[in-house]
Amino acid sequence: MERFSADLGTLTNEVIAITGTGGKTTLMFSLARQLSKGRKVLATTTTKIMLPSRNEYDRLYVDIEELKREEGKFEFGLVVAGGPVNSDGKLTSISDEDLGKLLPFFDTLLIEADGSRMKKLKAWRSNEPVVPSFTSKTIGIIPITCLGMRIDGEHIHNFDLFGEFLSGEKSVTMEVLKRLVLSRDGLFKNSTGERILVINQADDQSLHEAALKLSEMIEQEDTGHLISKHFILSLEAISHGDYSHYTCRRLWQADERK
Length: 258
What we know:
By secondary structure, the chain is α/β, with parallel strands linked by helices. The chain has 7 helices and 14 strands. About 25% of the residues lie in helices and about 25% in strands. It has a 9-stranded mixed β-sheet, sandwiched between helices. The protein is globular.
C-alpha cells in the first residue's frame, strides 16, 4: 500500500472517511497498517464494522474512556476503537463528539463511515453516510465488477431508493455508475474535505480498461471539480504489492477547485 498511500497524499493530522461499497474495510485496514509504521493511527467507524482479527492491530478498545486514559502509553502503531461489540460480532459506532476528543492523540484517523450489508452497490438514506464534519479527505469506493449486474434488491442495498440513479436501466451500466458517483445524493453525499474516487476490483486488463473509461466519463461531467483524484486498482492485488492494474489520475490540486 506504500505507493497508494504516497499517491493519496496522506499527511499527519488527517481525518479520512471511507464511503461506498466493495472494499471499505479492506481499504481502511490496509491503509491503516501502512500509515502506522512510525505514526499513531486510529481506525474506527461511525456505523459498524466487523471486529478485526488480532493480527490486524496493535491495540483494541471498546471503551473510549479507557483509550483516553491509556493513549500516552504508546508512541506509534495502529489502534482500533469503537463502541461495544454487538451480537453480530461488530464494533459499534463512536460519536462525532468522542472522535473530536480523540483527534489530538493521533496522527491520522481512518473512519469507515458507510454500510452496505455486503452488497455491490447502494443508495443512501437521509442519515447516510455518516461523515464527521472535521473530515479532511473523503474516499468513495465502488467495484467495477458490478457492470452488467442486475438491478434488484439482491444486489443493491436500500434498493427502494436506487431509482434516483436510473433512467430505465435494468442492469448496471457506465451511465448508472457515473450518476451514482456525481449525484448530490450519491457516493459523496454528506462528504467534506478533499473527495477521492476509488474504482476497485480492476483485477485484470479488461476490468482496468472499463474502470479507466468510467473515470474518463466522470471527469468529463465533473465540471464543478467535485473529485480531485481517481484511483483504478485491485485492493486485493496492491495489498500484496501487485500494481500491474493500477492507475492514479490526479485531476486538480486543492487550490485549483472552482
